[in-house]
Amino acid sequence: MPQALLLHGQAGIGKFDFAIHLAQSLLCEADLLSAGTKPCKQCEACRWFETGNHPDLIALVPQTYRKKLPHAALEGLEKSSEMLGDEEPESPKLEAESADIATEPKEKKQSGFIRMEQSLAAIQSMGIGSHRGGYRVLLIYPLELLRVEAANALLKSLEEPNPKTLFILVADRLDRVMPTIRSRCQLIAMPRPMREEALIWLQAQLEGQKNLKLGPHEIENALDEQGGAPLAARDFILAKRSDNDKDPLILATAATPILLEALSKGRDIPWLECAEKIHKAPYSSLLNTMQRWLSDIQTAAQAKQQRYYPRHAKQIDALAAQANLIQLMRLWKQLIEARRHENHPLSTRIQLESLLTQYQQIFEA
Fold first, then answer.
1. What is the arithmetic mean of pLDDT over 332-348?
2. pLDDT at 110
3. Regarding predicted confidence, which is higher, 156 or 334?
């Protein structure tokens, strides 16, 4: 194995799940010849892993991704700071959140960022030897959310790694990862599954859901709107039926149809009203929706087809006939620039109003 793997590809295709499975396989202590496959799910290391207590796994993720870790495990920084010696812990202990998180009220909005102190503590802890005598794994996702100081600390660790240390880095946006980090990793591109495979998987995932009645084309529409990413489509469908109005995914799901309805009106877009209704949704999701809508208008104008929103084909075709493609490309560049700063604490509403008024100008005579 190389010292660092960088898995990259479209969001919502299963990169993080694959990374967790890979980490468990590397930490599994069963003999491959006798077990036949790894992870074996039977050895002590696997049991510790699945309860979120393996001392040689450090997962550095935002709060919004914690539920995807084994047994809702947290970062493991407390364990790393406590187990500085060579002695093995007497028994696995359920991991608890750090004091500042544990005392937060449950209704507080979860952070979508990787905190600086967690980043530096996790990276520095990789200097400690393995507790179990095998690999010591640091899993980071999304890698592009690392702050500059943490990314520089990670770079130093990549340059001088300890033996039996493996970095599993996962990124949705490879262009946002520092070139110096990319150059020190083995890059593995993770592709989207074929559409037919994704639809079969989605149907199987949604069959067991209670009170979930889907129309004949709802699954296909969700998959198209998410760019062919099956996990993102599944989460999008399930979020529609949730009443947790503080979850970022649910806010994004609720805002999407409002934004699409407004965009379909072209020069008559109620940009002020639209921005008022959707500005609390994650800015990145809103930008993503606008990019996909503009992409469909452009392909409709040039190739007479739509990729993301075929169910809005009539509106998109009509808009494509009216659109000034030069103005459209200018807005496209503005959206790309906005994506670079989507996580900055700027006023989402003001930025949205600016982009929506520029969208209106595409269709002005």
1. 84
2. 55
3. 334
Q: How far apart are CA 349 and CA 279, in angstroms?
A: 5
> What are 103's two structure tokens?
């005392």
Domain residue ranges in the chain: 4-189, 192-241, 247-361
Residue 341 burial (10 A CB sphere; 0-12, 13-18, 19+): exposed
Among candidate residues 314, 264, 267, 270, the one with its CA nearest the CA of residue 289: 264
Whether the pLDDT of residue 93 is over 50: the answer is no
From residue 110, how far is each of 63, 248, 303 by CA, in Å? 6, 9, 42
Block residue for tokens 């998410």: 226
Per-residue confidence (pLDDT) for residue 71, from 0 to 100: 64
Separation CA 176–CA 197 (nearest Å): 30
Residue 181: burial class (beta carbons within 10 Å; 0-12, 13-18, 19+) = buried
Largest CA distance in the chain: 75
What's the DSSP call for residue 341? T
Beta-carbon contacts of 304 under 8 Å, excluding residues fewer than 6 positions away, are: 317
Q: What is the DSSP letter of 2?
A: -
CA distance 171 to 151: 13
The CATH label, of 1.10.287, 1.20.58, 1.20.272, 1.10.3470, for the domain at 247-361 is 1.20.272
pLDDT at 235 over 50: yes
- Rounded CA-CA distance 356/266 in Å is 10
Label residue 365 by pLDDT band (50, 70, 90).
low
Please state, rounded to an integer, the average pLDDT across all residues of the chain: 82
Question: CATH number of 4-189: 3.40.50.300, 3.30.420.40, 3.40.50.280, 1.10.730.10?
Answer: 3.40.50.300
User: What letter does residue 111 receive in the DSSP assignment?
Assistant: P
Task: Give exposure, 25-37, as e/b (b: 16+ Cβ within 10 Å).
Answer: bbbbbbeeeebee
pTM over 0.70: yes
- 11-50 pLDDT per residue, tens: 999 999 999 999 999 999 888 766 678 888 889 999 989 8
Inter-CA distances, 100 with 67, 117, 345, Å: 18, 12, 22
